Amino acid sequence: MKAQGAVIHEVGGQWKVEELELDDPQDHEVLVQVMASGLCHSDDHFVTGDLAVTLPMVGGHEGAGIVVKVGSKVSRVKVGDHVSTLFIPACGVCRFCARGQSYICNNGAGMEHGLGMDGTPRFHIADSGKGIGGVTRLGTFANYLVCHETQTVKLPDDIPFDVACLVSCGVATGWGASVYGGNVRAGDVVMVMGVGGVGMNAVQGARHAGADHVIVVEPVEWKRKAALDFGATEAFASVDAARDRINALTNGQGVDAAIITVGRVDGDIIGEAFSVTGKAGATILASVGSFEPHIAASPQDFTNFAKRIQGVLYGLCNPVLDIPRLLQMYRDGRLKLDELITRRYDINEVNEGFADMHAGKNIRGVLIHKH
């Protein structure tokens, strides 16, 4: 069938809207009419080369839509279901899924190529017939996609698609970074570095978990102010500016959890967060960035103060469980999702959306597909 999507052809290039041909779903696959997709910073990392993938590729992994066709052996969803896409499959039976770690499901292997689990493409450029992948085997910047059923979670029909798409990545990642990665508890002091589409949810997660103080570090002034509405207790332009307040709150010992959700991370930023992490505390890394094998942290601090650095993928969430849970919080008025969306874009405005992200204009931009 025919589809249309935004494709990145080379590192440093621009997203190009292409006419596409899309294969029918195989036995365990579903065809999804994509209604909305978040403009996640991770997709921009494919453009900058911070994340190495096989190009060209259809962009987008943070999606929500409607199942319009299913393969002969699909059992998780049916035609007509509203679904959220999962950028990591959740097979439920591999070693990691079986022990509650579906955020590192074994079927995530090879997703940097964007091909189906059988190693063949589902998207084809219409003019040439060339087969190409979709980001994390999805490609939510296209108005239709085919994916494995284990990359879908059924949604309640009353949840708006523009809200639902955000929960599939940015919300779960940020919220889980605090709740699961940082193991935030009542009375804790937490610092969140960077409050975009992931960081704002780390703020919400920290407050849900009971933190007494949630200190935001964010260079963009209007985002610092917005963070207060999401549950931050204080906001500063830099870690150095926040350091005196952190020392005052913690008797000079440092925060219980320092959560890194900046747009692009490097070893110096990790070291800066680690420097204000307290005894038995954790520096939580939820950002993507430099491949340089360097972290500016003293080995003595790990040992003498029992500190740790914890990497976080998908917020350490189990999305089949946690996405419905987060949406129920939204329904109950305990999780802000509508307020995350700064602007909505159409398919021809994808490059503008990412330019706005780099300019600090958005918490999260959302691509709305027209059907």
Automatic annotation (TrEMBL):
Among Gene3D superfamilies, the record links this protein to:
Medium-chain alcohol dehydrogenases, catalytic domain, NAD(P)-binding Rossmann-like Domain
> Does the keyword Metal-binding feature in the UniProt annotation?
yes
Extract one GO cellular component term from the record: cytosol
Q: What CDD domains does this protein map onto? A: Zn_ADH_class_III
Q: Which GO terms describe its molecular function?
A: S-(hydroxymethyl)glutathione dehydrogenase [NAD(P)+] activity; zinc ion binding
Q: Tell me the ranges covered by the Enoyl reductase (ER) domain, including all copies.
A: 12-367
A Pfam family per the record:
ADH_N
Q: Which GO terms describe its biological process?
A: formaldehyde catabolic process
Instruction: Give the record's keywords alphabetically.
Output: Metal-binding, NAD, Oxidoreductase, Zinc
Q: Which PANTHER family match?
A: ALCOHOL DEHYDROGENASE, ALCOHOL DEHYDROGENASE CLASS-3
Q: What is this protein called?
A: Unannotated protein
Q: Which organism is it from?
A: freshwater metagenome
